[in-house]
Every structure is written in structure tokens, then in C-alpha cells.
Amino acid sequence: MKTVQTFLKFSTKILLPVLFSVSTLLCSAQENVKSLTFYSKSLKKDRKVEVFLPEDYNENESVRYPVIYFLHGCGQNSFSEGNIHYILNKLINNKTISPVILVKPDGSCPDWESSYFMNSALNGNFEDYLVKDLVEYIDSAYRTIALRDKRAIMGYSEGGSNAIRTALKHPDKYSGVVSHSSRPNMSSHSLYIPGILSENGGAPVDSFRPNAGPWSLGIFSMAAAFSPNLNNPPYFVDFPVDRNGNFIDSIWNRYLLNDCSFLAKNISKEDDLAIYFDCGTWDELGVYPFNTSFADSLKKIGLPHQFQSYPGGHYDRDSRYPIGMAFLDSVMNKVK
């Protein structure tokens, strides 16, 4: 783990050369992006996926590559965060990182902001689609190094939370995880309750509606993933907050079973899962406390990790991606 633990000493050196404008980035990056459709057995339907291939992918058919899976945020899909291709291409061309394949799955979900890449009776088995179907497809369709040590996962915003949760649940699949500006500590969602109550007329609330506002839609989207109930129309979810703004324990406990702080307790040092996450102290969506509380939880259980806070906001991800990618590069290419 020495390589991973010391990489932050060089993060400033890594960051400065790659703070570039889109107009100066290499056009060849987009040429190496493949937009595809593949059939997911777990979802029983086709899903979109974008695959970034290194420039030298077609030059030597004997070369195989490690893979990073990138998860998008709420309201996005596999076509979102297009700048990441340019950033990755620049890092590879500058030899800041080794060549790598980047895969962007589609976790969007009809009617809701996100599937949260969770298995759900309402949304479908998105976790199995991500961890099983997609990995099998990518390893069969491209020259990957189909080993856990050469496979990593990362994400931005809600995608970052999903990446951490997925890696903690499947440490046999991923050697490292990176999260930028995410909400890894589920309990911190109590910070959003005043907004939810306000959107629905204030406490006591007569009825919660997903179209009442962004906070309400967000918590309904979580409910579709974490507490679906096909016997509870019209939204077919068990809403986790009562009319006075208190969490309903019997429902909220279902969420906490997939809380990153809870899942981390099942990870041992022998799992050798490298964890990096960061967040701006000025985050406009208020997710900074989610990260500091998660870092505190990892410290308490003694799980190795790297957490960086920085003077910035939620949408500064283009300046953070290079650091996250360098971290994963140090993980997948570390000297044994």
C-alpha cells in the first residue's frame, strides 16, 4: 500500500499540468470513445454504455489494459461528463498515468433521478447489471486484464456514493474506489429534511409528493432504490420520513443496511481495497458533512483511506478527476 499512501505527496504536481481548457485538449480523445448498447440479463433490457479506449489500443493486439468504471450523478446517463475523456487522454499522453480503458454505464431510471445502481423490486436489478453483466460484457468485448487487481471504480456526486457502496459490497471485484463530491454517509440526509418539509407545505405534512421540488424528488428516488414497495400505490415506495419530519425507523433501517459507513465495517485490511474520496468545503449542495462524517467512521474502525478536502464547490470535478485517476493508477499498477 506504500505507493497508494504516498501518492498524495505528488497530487499538486499531478494537478497543475492538467488544469487545461477544453479548447486545448486533444481531439483524438473523442475519436476513441465508443457508444454502445448491450443486453443486460439482470435488467432484461438493453442498456447504453460509453467506452474510452487508449490511443494505442489498436496498435498492438497483444496488449491488455486495466479498466476504470465511472458512475455518473443523479439526472445523468452514460453520455454525461464527456470532459472526462479529454482529461484521461491528456493524462495518458503526458505519461502521468498508464493507458487504461474507461467504462461509463447508464444508471438512469425512468421517473426517478437515479437507480443508485441498486437492486430494486421497482427499478430492476441495477447492481447485478453493473457488477456482473457489464463486467462480463466488457471483459469479453475488449482486451481488458480481467483481474480484480486491474479493475477499479469511481464516480462523481451521487455516482461517487454509488461507487463507494458498490466497492464495499464487492471488494472481490474492485481493487480501488474513488469518489468526488458525494454523499457516502446515509445518516447525513437528515440535513435535507427541512427542505423536504418546506416543499410539501411544512409540518405536519398532509402528503409527500415527488414533484413538490428537488429535495422531494431526491428522497423519492432514493426510496425507489432502497425502500420499494409494489403494494403501496401510487408511488410504490415506503417513504422514510413521517409527516413531522422524523425518520421512520422500520423503513430507514433498510437504507442504513446500504450505508457506506455500515458496509465499511465488513471490510478488512486483507481485502486490500484502496479508498480515496474528496469534497469541496464550499459545496453548494451541502455534501461536505457527508464526507467528513464518513471519514470519521473509517477512522473509528481503522480502515485505511485517503480523504482530501479543498477550497472549492460541488462542480469543480474537472480539477479533481486527475487526482482520482492518478490514485487508481497507483493502485492498479503498484509494485507487488
What structural keywords apply?
336 residues, Rossmann fold, 2 domains, eight-stranded mixed beta sheet, 12 helices, 35% helix, disordered N terminus
Please tell me about this protein's structure.
- This protein has 336 residues and is of the alpha/beta class.
- The chain is built from 12 helices and 10 strands.
- Strands 1-2-4-3-7-8-9-10 form an 8-stranded mixed sheet, sandwiched between helices. A two-stranded antiparallel ribbon has the order 5-6.
- Helix 4 (83-93) packs across helix 12.
- The chain is globular, with a radius of gyration of 20 Å.
- It starts with a helix and ends with a helix.
- The model is unreliable at 2-28 (pLDDT under 50).
| Domains, number | 2
Helix content: 25-40%
Average of the residue pLDDT scores: 89
CATH class of the largest domain: Alpha Beta
Rg, Å, rounded: 20 Å
Assign the structural class, choosing from mainly alpha, mainly beta, alpha/beta, alpha+beta, or little secondary structure: alpha/beta
The second-level CATH architecture of the largest domain is 3-Layer(aba) Sandwich
What's the number of helices? Answer: 12
**How would a crystallographer describe the biggest sheet?**
8 strands, mixed
CATH topology of the largest domain: Rossmann fold
The ordered H/E elements are: HHHEEEHEEEHEHEHHHHEHEH
Termini gap: 9 Å
- Spans of at least 5 consecutive residues with low confidence: 2-28
Gross morphology is globular
Widest β-sheet, arrangement of strands: 1-2-4-3-7-8-9-10
Strand fraction: 15-25%
- By CATH, the superfamily of the largest domain comes out as Alpha/Beta hydrolase fold, catalytic domain
**What is the number of strand segments?**
10
